[in-house]
Amino acid sequence: MRTLSSVVGALALTACGIVATTTPAQAAPALRFHSTQYDSPGKDTRTNKSLNAEWIALVNTGSKPVRLTGWKIVDKSRTYTFGNVTIAGKGGKIYLHTGKGTNTRAHLYWGSGNYVWNNTGDTATLKTKAGKTHDTCKWGNKKGRTKVSC
Q: Where is the LTD domain (predicted)?
């Protein structure tokens, strides 16, 4: 049961134009896997050039940039954790290459000396900083195909 003082207080706040509201939960970013080249062209030689020809890409279809710090791309046996990285809004893309290299805004490097993605089929999982699955990209073995859109 409300007391007279709580009702008077609520009326006073309303009269002053102060209304308490709750903020809606923050919507998940419009971020998803775009594509992957899971089998680098040519022979698998494990040279850095060949390793970097294997990549997976993210796209941000939302209007605002998304800070990826702490987000992860997970394979069955490996995990890549994003450092201080932001993906631009309105179609911004980031490519994560398997091998070693110097990170730029659009190209990041896993730093692996082995291939990450299986040519016969695999699943990539994008996880939020909190560890929740945000998106997946799955492919199977299709003869002659080395790249897929997610």
A: 22-141
